[in-house]
Structure formats: structure tokens, C-alpha cells
Amino acid sequence: MHPNAWYSRFAKAAARFCGRPRVFILALLVILVWIVTGPIFQYSDTWQLVINTGTTIVTFLMVFLIQNTQNRDTEAIQIKLDELIRATKGAHNALLDLEELEEETLEVFRQRYLGLARSARRELGEGFKDTDTPEA
Questions:
Q1: Which UniProt keywords apply (predicted)?
Q2: Contact 31, 51 (CB under 8 A)
Q3: 80/58 Cα distance (integer angstroms)
Q4: Who contacts 106 (Cβ-Cβ below 8 Å, separation ≥6)?
Q5: How many Cβ atoms from other residues are within 10 Å of residue 11's Cβ?
Q6: Distance CA 132, CA 5 (A)
Q7: What is the largest CA-CA distance in the chain?
Q8: Which helix (H) or strand (E) holds 75?
Q9: In degrees rounded to 5, what are phi and psi of residue 93?
Q10: CB neighbourhood size of 66 (10 A)
């Protein structure tokens, strides 16, 4: 087992747990309790510091958990897309793993496909179908 597998499992479980409506309602209740206790604590600096510190800590930690989950999901989607390209007869294998290319190289591919899209729209406007597979 990979040494960081525990973190991935934890991040996945935490993201799943924190994304539930009950957790949102709990967070909302914490805010409401804090608001209601304002007059009791005379809106003191400590009263304000409690919510500021609490929300800052939770936000700081959640950023890392969400980023981990997002990175894993993005990589899985990219692998699935790469497999679709690989398995599709006539697909351009040069499009595999595009996310790893430099910005300038990506722009070259993007311009090619923008040109294909413009051409397809023009032909569609002229009454042709846009369902063929033109060369990139």
C-alpha cells in the first residue's frame, strides 16, 4: 500500500462527509448559535475571535482536502478520456495526455480544432451535415 494512501482515503471520506446537507445545516446552526450569543457576550472581541478563528481553521483545512479530491477526480477523468481516444478507431493518439503539454503546444491543438468547428458550422449553414470525421 502506498504510504500516502491514508491521506487519500481520509480526504475522500472527509469530502464526502462535508458535502452532505446535514453538515451544511450543522455549520448553519453553529453560525446561528454564534449570532444568538452575541448579546450574551456583549459582542466582545473574544466573541468575534471565536467565529473568525474557527471558520479560518476549517477553511484552511478544507482547501487541502478539496484540492486532493479534485486532483484525484481530474486525473481519473483524464485517464478515462485517454482510454476513449485510444480505443476509438480513427482517433488521433496525439491527443492523449494533452493536459501535460505546454501552453503553447496546447494552443496549436486548440486552433486546429477551432478551425474544424468553424468549418463545420459554415458547412452546416450551407445545408451540409456536420457528422463526418475530418482530419485535424
A1: Membrane, Transmembrane, Transmembrane helix
A2: yes
A3: 33
A4: 98
A5: 19
A6: 45
A7: 73
A8: helix 45-87
A9: -65, -15
A10: 15
Grid cell digits, residue 127: 445545408
The conformation of residue 130, written as its DSSP 8-state character, comes to S
Residues 6+ apart with CB under 8 A from 20: none
Cell numbers found for residue 100 = 501535460
Per-residue pLDDT in tens (0 to 9) along the chain, 136 residues: 677 889 888 988 998 999 999 999 999 999 999 999 999 999 999 999 999 999 999 999 999 999 999 999 999 999 999 999 999 888 888 889 888 999 999 999 999 999 989 998 999 899 888 777 777 6
DSSP 134: -
| Alpha-carbon gap, residue 30 to 134, rounded angstroms | 58
